[in-house]
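Structure ticket #2291
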Amino acid sequence: MQVVYEDNHIIIVSKRSGEIVQGDKTGDVPLSDTVKQYIKEKHAKPGNVFLGVAHRLDRPVWGLVVFAKTSKALGRLSTMFRDGDIRKTYWAITQNSPTKHEGTLTHWLVRNEKQNKSYAYDHEVPHSKKALLKYRILGHSERYTLLEVDLLTGRHHQIRCQLANMGCPIKGDLKYGAKRSNPDGSISLLAHKVDFIHPVSKESISVVAPVPEDNLWQDITKNL
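Resolution: structure written out below.
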């Protein structure tokens, strides 16, 4: 992980693919524990360190995760994420290119808990949740396309599912139709940027994640 922003109330880190944000049944050390340890050591804090998880990022995804260092910030950040007051921008490398340079995708997603997968429908169906995102093409490599995605709702696997439904699965995302996995087990999706009004100081915050050191990521973003 890499710390990209920190103040008294908030810490934002850029996570590597493969890191889990919160503990799960794998028993692997979660990012939240790593961040707690960092705060404890940096600020020489005795006893337990408070750290609140305001949102999550899928394990194979790279990029920004926002944590709260105070309970006041956690309550407000959680509400802001839920209400869409935090603008989240992603970069995705896809196998195919959309037919339009930019557009808005609207689907109704149904989550299958057993498969840990979501399914997209173009109309409302039982147990579905409306999912909205905007995309635009940023660039190309020989075989892949780089999309910028503005996430307008926060559904389970939303970007992965909606882009796949458009015929543009994310590179390495076998679950949603990619042809082959990435050697490091990642999928080529980066939580690139967050923009929001600080829940305590009311300042405007804009944070950008470093681009993964992977050759394709570096090549496809070099002219941006």
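Closing remark: The radius of gyration is 18 Å.
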